[in-house]
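Entry for the shared binder. Reason: the reviewer on the internal report wants the predicted structure included alongside the sequence.
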Amino acid sequence: MAVHLLDENNTREIKDADLPIPDTDQKTVYTIRDITKAKYREFIKRHTKKVTSRQRGMVDETDFQKVSDDLLDYALVAWKGVTLPGSTDDAPCIWENKARLDSVRSAAILDAAGIGQVEEASEQKKASFREPAPVA
């Protein structure tokens, strides 16, 4: 099998039934976009701010929930077979509806979009640096 390079201009369809989660639907299909390192870093930077720490002075604090929300909104481009309660029509693929997906399904969609590859690289880089000494 060939190596799949991440490209933020690349979209592809994945079936809900192909996600490694329980209770999948055979007819539901998602259109997803690759999450590249550059895009991941953009969202991290957007949701990171400097805060004061008594032990270490100024430190970066990242709101990873907001990062995750932005990544899902970015990666999930369209869907077929996702409906609102009481309707048979496809729900609009907008953030308000994306946020209503269950967390297991959302995580599987992000994984399919390549988040595991991007986070892994970021964690390896972070682990290569040691923590600064406490400020006296």
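Summary line for the report: The CA atoms of residues 12 and 78 lie 10 Å apart.
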